[in-house]
Amino acid sequence: MKQETAKMAPFEGLGPWLEMAERLGEIKRITAEVDPYLEMATITSLASREIGGPALLFENIKGHPGQRALFHPIGTSFKRLALAMREFPDKSGLDLVRILKEKSKNRILPKVVPAGSATVNRNIERGEQIDITKFPAPHFWPLDGGKYIGTCGSVITRDPESGRINLGTYRQMVKSKNEVGYYISPGKDGRIDRDAWWAMGKPAPVAAVYGIEPLQFMISSTTFPKTHSEYEYWGGLNGAPIEVFESDVTGLLLPANAEIIIEGYSYPGESFHEGPFGEFTGYYGHPGGPCPYIKVEAVRYKNNPILTCHLNCDWPANSEYMMAMLRSAALWNNLDSLGVVGVRGVWSPPEATPLGMSVVSIEQKYPGHAAQVMALAAQCTGAAYFSKYIVVVDHDVDPSKLDEVVWAMATRSRPAQSIDILRETWNTPLDPSLNPPEIRPWGSKCLINACMEYRYIKEFAKRLLHNKPMYDQVARRWQEFGFETPVPKVDIFEQADKLGGPATRPTAGAAIDRM
């Protein structure tokens, strides 16, 4: 069976993924002693400046004998991202978006297993035994408020009315040996769940999973309909049910194959000063302030567990490929569900955090098509949060190639006619561009139509395109010409035999300026 049609077998846990990634040369083990205070993060930041750089597994962490930490499981590697999605590592970014778009439609309920069979329950500590500071939580940036154990993890909460289980990724700063904060932005499901428990005058049951496989990180970082649990989408992407067990502490369903789980309760009115923290925007989010925390009642972990960590910083030294995939697939599915036709591709550029921008490629079918797509994309669930720029381009532009997008913006948009602004939109409190910080939850969006003007699309200046027979001839002889790299892929070719009329229709008696 050819690899292109073969399917990767489902798996669970960080271990199997780590083995496959290491066989591909995607993991770099660091055995020299490193300090969790700034040094691990600094090494990761510098080593990740090259796109496609390896994930770093620190195996000798100062003050934490026997503990390990894995930074940037996905990073900027399409290979590691493909493995996380249960795909072979031969796909482009846009290929992975298309696959994720389809796989995200599948849901498989989790499989409840006995707690005694869960590998994460090899070690269970309660009461005075609990000391989460033994895990190598990094202090990432010089002005961070403390050690952050939860950056590449998953916080598990439950809706007190429906019982729906939510998995979300929220930052978590260590407060003490048995207390950990969890900051959640307004509107996020985990915060809605917590507020619902508190409104009933009850503590909120919470679990935090550390040392998670990359697919769980992806699922926890995505916004799904509030009517379904992320466990179902995780299972759908995995191709098999996710094994979970029911906790005897919180009653939550917890992943059986996690590396580390802490769980307990968050009590109404109890908070501590959390932050600041270096955020995904490449800035410190805010000076810090009151934040709820979890009173830990149990800690569960495998033998020789690995703590997974995500460093927020400027592109490309972060894991923005993952967020680019997630947002792009979610937005594409949103547009499909709204009945939008002609969508050829969706991409959220990682260079733009990537929550800050989304690009949609369409084949224009009717007048106003591009404007419709802009407006809908800007407010879909998949892109409504934070994104400042929505750009729509024609089908001959690859939305995942920023150089082509900028070219289309410069040659096809008309600033006076092609740009619209939406105001008072859903934004993040972490947006550094809005001040004072109190106004940050209300943002704005710039909608840019970088398509050929539809009313003149037949007369629009023809793009320079290759002749396909000649391209195929050159491709066959590429190595003969002395090139060692693969021939660049070209998908669109010239179809006409001769150049048609001018790009615009001149008025009577007017000369055409051809320069």
Q: State the separation between the terminal residues, measured CA to CA.
A: 55 Å
Write down the overall mean pLDDT.
Answer: 92
Write the CATH fold name of the largest domain.
Answer: Pnp Oxidase, Chain A
Whole-angstrom Rg: 25 Å
Q: Report the structural category.
A: alpha+beta
Describe the protein's architecture and organization.
The chain is α+β, with helices and mostly antiparallel strands and 515 residues long. It has two domains: 14-309, Pnp Oxidase, Chain A (Roll); 320-456, UbiD C-terminal domain-like. It contains twelve helices and 22 strands. The model is unreliable at 501-515 (pLDDT under 50).
What's the layout of helices and strands?
Blueprint: H1 14-23, E1 27-30, H2 39-47, E2 55-58, E3 68-71, H3 78-84, H4 93-103, E4 111-112, E5 123-126, E6 148-150, E7 154-158, E8 165-168, E9 172-176, E10 179-181, H5 189-199, E11 204-210, H6 214-220, H7 230-238, E12 243-246, E13 253-255, E14 260-266, E15 271-274, E16 289-301, E17 306-309, H8 320-337, E18 343-347, E19 357-362, H9 369-379, E20 389-394, H10 402-412, H11 415-418, E21 419-426, E22 442-450, H12 468-476
Parallel strand pairs: 1-2, 3-17, 4-12, 19-20, 20-22
Antiparallel strand pairs: 2-3, 5-16, 6-9, 7-8, 7-11, 9-10, 10-16, 11-14, 12-13, 14-16, 15-16, 18-19, 21-22
Please summarize what this structure is.
With 515 residues, the chain is α+β, with helices and mostly antiparallel strands. It has helices at 14-23, 39-47, 78-84, 93-103, 189-199, 214-220, 230-238, 320-337, 369-379, 402-412, 415-418, 468-476, and strands spanning 27-30, 55-58, 68-71, 111-112, 123-126, 148-150, 154-158, 165-168, 172-176, 179-181, 204-210, 243-246, 253-255, 260-266, 271-274, 289-301, 306-309, 343-347, 357-362, 389-394, 419-426, 442-450. 23% of the residues lie in helices and 22% in strands.
